[in-house]
Amino acid sequence: EDQVTQSPEALRLQEGESSSLNCSYTVSGLRGLFWHRQDPGKGPEFLFTLYSAGEEKEKERLKATLTKKESFLHITAPKPEDSATYLCAVQPREYNTDKLIFGTGTRLQVFP
Amino acid sequence: DTGVSQDPRHKITKRGQNVTFRCDPISEHNRLYWYRQTLGQGPEFLTYFQNEAQLEKSRLLSDRFSAERPKGSFSTLEIQRTEQGDSAMYLCASGRAGDQPQHFGDGTRLSIL
């Protein structure tokens, strides 16, 4: 069964303290892996798509990487405005489906 | 780019009533998706459309749920005979093609009394 597991469930960082979020997945074939951030009361906001092992994407203080079994979201020198829930999702290759299978997210708090 | 718009933002109803939500996608996107999210969980896929054709439905979508996209633009999601377990955030997203990013609206929060 296709599955996504994110760790840790929650993470508290001091401003400037870099860290990484993990997304482990099992899927019959990977069409794409997607990272989103979600603020309270809002819908998920797209961050990155990764398609193949070894691929990396960067945006401001965030960098996403992909292996055959997991993805990492590295946060460098975070600021309080980076506080949010970060969601990882995989899109299976089977049946050419568009559906995304999400993990439960990592709640990140960055305090001054 | 005005983003994905959902209406209403909040809906409170009594158990057993019918409810309908509307989603207006980003205009140049031909694919439209519905997800459901409960507290502390990630979104769960419900169904999606390419233009007006409904291409896939999740097993989560019981016969009390129906979704339409009659003219290939906006979409509606109707829940008949609502139950307590239907309380959730209903999210709509749109996108250009299969493996491209899905852009989400801010959802409709449904509360069943």
Structure overview:
The complex is a heterodimer of chains A (112) and B (113). Chain A has no helices and eleven strands. Chain A has strands spanning 3-7, 10-14, 19-26, 30-38, 45-50, 56-59, 62-66, 70-75, 84-92, 101-102, 106-111. In chain A, strands 2, 4, 5, 9, 10 and 11 form a six-stranded mixed sheet that branches. The mean pLDDT of chain A is 96. With 113 residues, chain B is an all-beta fold. Chain B has strands at 5-7, 10-13, 19-24, 31-37, 44-50, 53-57, 65-68, 75-79, 88-95, 103-104, 108-112. In chain B, strands 2, 4, 5, 6, 9, 10 and 11 form a seven-stranded mixed sheet that branches. In chain B, strands 1-3-8-7 form a four-stranded antiparallel sheet, with no helix packed on it. The termini of chain B are far apart. The model of chain B has no long low-confidence stretch (mean pLDDT 95). At the A-B interface, strand 4, strand 5, strand 9 and strand 10 of A face strand 4, strand 5, strand 9 and strand 10 of B.
Identify the notable features of this structure and list them briefly.
heterodimer; A: 112 residues; mainly beta; 6-stranded mixed beta sheet; 5-stranded antiparallel beta sheet; B: 113 residues; 7-stranded mixed beta sheet; globular
